[in-house]
Amino acid sequence: MACSRFEYVKSFEQDDSILPNVWIVIRIDGKKFHKFSKTHDFEKPNDENALNVMNAAATAVMQEFRDIVLAYGQSDEYSFVFRKETAAFKRRSAKLLTYVTSLFSSSYVMQWSKWMNLPLAYAPCFDGRVVLYPSEQNLKDYLSWRQADVHVNNLYNTAFWKLVLEKGLTNQQAEAKLRGTFSADKNELLFQEFGINYNNLPAMYRKGTILLRKRVILGEKSRQAVVPLHEDLISSQFWKEHTEILGKYVPGTYNAPQTLPRLVEMQINGKELDDEAEEPQNLAGTS
Ligand code: GTP
Ligand code: MG
């Protein structure tokens, strides 16, 4: 391209390359989802289908960005963890952030009608941020922080909406009843007043969703897919089991439940099954 006298303006662009050898986490969060969930009549406190729109959008992001080794979602947020060595987009912060956030948003819209039976009333949008973690422990603690957040919020919200929807309390009355209570009190209230054992509620609501790339065994064949897990990632057991996250990136086998989650089925349907030997393993940085 010919040089023009305007060319010098390029020098105003700042280098935003992320330093090497750190975990890159991108977290997106829905803008005003309090209103969005009301407008779209989400079930309270958890709407399984709406959460699956989030999960499906995050799956689409993981399919595109092969250097994402784990994604973790709850409520209206998702965190994406890039492997430490990623060279994706030359580690340029703005590029990574905007690609992930915009792909997530457009995928959310694309997935909507596959899970929800009412039309989108308006375009949802998501903010995004980049956070860097230098050590494995920092990364584990970050994810534990997000999972602990689900626990605190979900226990409160479950008790709150039971009081409002089943006991007929006003929002203010329910709030007053729960003010100053500890987890054990809320567990007790759910059990005594509603016969609910909190630990028996769906794991997706209590633990959020962890997306990992795994080998799904289908009879004689297997193929890679992004699979949803609802495990306790605060426990050391999780990290012992899923060694591919922090170690050499070789996806493990998916311990599939009896019926494959729809999220996995959707990835597998309509595609040829790869023989295990031919499994694609190119996880080099997207550029
Ligand atoms: P900003 O993120 O600051 O724009 O505000 P926000 O309204 O999105 O609040 P925040 O991100 O803190 O919390 C997410 C909100 O989304 C929750 O407070 C709920 O109101 C709503 N939400 C998310 N998931 C569900 C769901 O499964 N069911 C229902 N009913 N609401 C949900
Ligand atoms: Mg939000």
UniProtKB/TrEMBL annotation:
Sequence positions that bind Mg(2+) 2: D29, D76
Enzyme Commission code: 2.7.7.79
Cofactor: Mg(2+)
GO biological process, one term: tRNA modification
Record key words, sorted: GTP-binding, Magnesium, Metal-binding, Nucleotide-binding, Nucleotidyltransferase, Transferase, tRNA processing
Superkingdom, natural source: Eukaryota
InterPro entries membership: Thg1_C_dom (IPR025845), tRNAHis_GuaTrfase_cat (IPR024956), tRNAHis_GuaTrfase_Thg1 (IPR007537), tRNAHis_GuaTrfase_Thg1_sf (IPR038469)
The Thg1 C-terminal domain, residue ranges: 137-218
Catalysed transformations (reactions): a 5'-end ribonucleotide-tRNA(His) + GTP + ATP + H2O = a 5'-end phospho-guanosine-ribonucleotide-tRNA(His) + AMP + 2 diphosphate + H(+)
Name the UniProt record assigns to this protein: tRNA(His) guanylyltransferase
Lineage: Eukaryota, Metazoa, Ecdysozoa, Arthropoda, Hexapoda
Gene responsible for this protein: Dsim\GD21976
